[in-house]
Design brief:
Number of domains of chain A: 1
Largest sheet of chain B: none
Number of strands of chain B: 0
Distance between the termini of chain B: 66 Å
Distance between the termini of chain A: 43 Å
Radius of gyration of chain A: 23 Å
Largest sheet of chain A: none
Shape of chain B: rod-shaped
Largest interface: A-B, 45 and 31 residues
Radius of gyration of chain B: 19 Å
Oligomer: heterodimer
Helix content of chain B: over 70%
Strand content of chain A: under 5%
Structural class of chain B: mainly alpha
Structural class of chain A: mainly alpha
Order of helices and strands of chain B: H
């Protein structure tokens, strides 16, 4: 910092305005990034928006913009601590995969067995991914960038990071995608209700649905993750790391003999990876790579993605209702996004607002769990289809 | 008229991608239904 100030004074005294302007812009960029870091920390602490991620990201953003720091590259040109962490945990996609093991260990697929039809909402609500990709293309992003931006609509941070890294995007863009994915996930209770209200009538929101509670065998719950991995792997081998990690986590949960591992995955592994993931992503948010129009557009695209996701799910439910005698409450379609269990809760809350005796929580949870499967599959589709076009896979 | 080739590719990816997601989830649906029957047999 002192060195920069000395350079600025020297440039001004020598009348070298170009150098002075460069240093001034660097200084301004630093201040803006400090403010952005501060806002993320504020949102995490005060608004409780994904605090486990946004707080470390915000702090990392401040850390990395302190002039002359050696956290990414050491003073002798060697790799700094966070540079090492980035290269060995995010660039090689280790952390997203580890998070998936933890997420898999947290998911209970029982509601899905009780309402299998809800699986299709997990597919329909992925519409936002593809629609956002198209909007990003129209705005001038190239195909891999647009594909990765679309995956924000998976409402699934690790998938977004995984795909952005697989396409070798600029670190600043990857950071923006990560921040957008996690920020909007926490904004589901704000984004979804108005979109749902816009697309449904009060009568539709009052539709009651029967729920048939039935026991699901342990064998079924054990076979499910194994079969899903095999099927997904055979169809799209590129998805094996993501789907395999998710299903491995679920298998250790359901097998009944690895409770300690399951608990470790759900708590210790999840917390440890989240802690390092956030701050490592944050340290990629240098002013030079983050402060550009693309970052701003990516942030807006996150909103677009979640709106399209919600609309896709609701409209698909209304479409299915055209052919069904026993109507589905179309709000459930919106729970087909991956933000679990937040979206299911939002839908149940809205249903109760319309009719205090309407309980559609279990169906919403089933759609929400399906969304977790759907988001990984859709992310894998982007990975496969875009990857093959640009020659990544 | 000059259409951005990325946009054409994007449209193709959208159609194939959505079909792919639905196809995979249809297979998962079949798996869930079959495994669900397994459970009812066990209960009997």
């Amino acid at each position: 910092m002192m060195e920069k100030a000395y350079q600025l004074i020297t440039a001004l005294s020598e009348g070298d305005m170009a150098v002075a302007a460069d240093i001034g812009l660097d200084f301004l960029g630093m201040i803006v990034m400090f403010i952005i870091g501060g806002i993320l920390i504020y949102l995490a602490i005060k608004k409780d928006y994904e605090p486990a991620l946004l707080l470390p990201i915000g702090f990392g953003a401040i850390l990395t913009n302190i002039p002359m720091n050696n956290i990414i590259t050491g003073s002798d040109g060697s790799t700094g601590v966070f540079g090492f962490l980035y290269n060995n945990t995010i660039a090689n996609e280790l952390f997203p995969v580890l998070i998936f093991i933890a997420v898999g260990a947290m998911i209970d697929f029982t509601p899905l067995f009780q309402s299998p039809l809800m699986l299709f909402f997990g597919a329909a609500a992925q519409f936002g991914i593809f629609a956002t990709m198209l909007v990003a293309l129209l705005l001038g992003f190239n195909l891999p960038e647009a594909g990765a931006i679309g995956v924000i609509g998976a409402a699934d941070g690790p998938t977004a990071i995984y795909v952005a890294n697989a396409f070798k995007l600029d670190k600043g863009l990857t950071a923006a995608i990560t921040v957008a994915a996690y920020s909007y996930m926490s904004l589901v209770p704000i984004i979804q209700p108005p979109v749902i209200r816009l697309l449904t009538t009060a009568d539709e929101r009052k539709i009651r649905m029967e729920f048939h509670q039935r026991k699901v065998s342990k064998l079924a719950k054990i076979l499910f993750p194994i079969l899903v991995t095999i099927v997904a792997g055979l169809i799209a081998p590129e998805s094996v790391a993501l789907v395999g990690a998710l299903m491995f986590g679920n298998l250790i949960r359901e097998c009944g003999v690895l409770n300690r591992l399951s608990e470790t995955a759900q708590n210790v592994l999840s917390n440890l990876v989240t802690l390092l993931l956030g701050i490592t992503i944050g340290t990629t948010m240098t002013a030079s790579s983050f402060l550009n129009w693309k970052t701003l557009v990516v942030m807006l695209m996150g909103l677009v993605a979640f709106i399209f996701d919600t609309a896709g799910g609701v409209l698909f439910a209304k479409f299915i209702n055209l052919f069904r005698k026993e109507k589905i409450n179309p709000m459930i379609g919106a729970a087909g996004i991956s933000a679990f269990p937040m979206s299911a809760r939002v839908i149940q809350k809205m249903a109760k607002e319309e009719d205090p005796m309407n309980y559609i929580l279990m169906q919403s949870v089933a759609a929400n769990v399906s969304g977790q499967l759907g988001s990984v599959v859709a992310g894998s589709m982007i990975l496969v289809l875009v990857g093959r076009l640009i020659g990544v896979n | 008229m000059n259409v951005n080739p990325d946009l054409i590719n994007g449209l193709e990816i959208t159609v194939v991608g959505l079909l792919g997601v639905f196809s995979v989830l249809i297979i998962f649906y079949v798996i869930v239904i079959l495994l669900g029957r397994l459970s009812s047999r066990e209960d009997e």
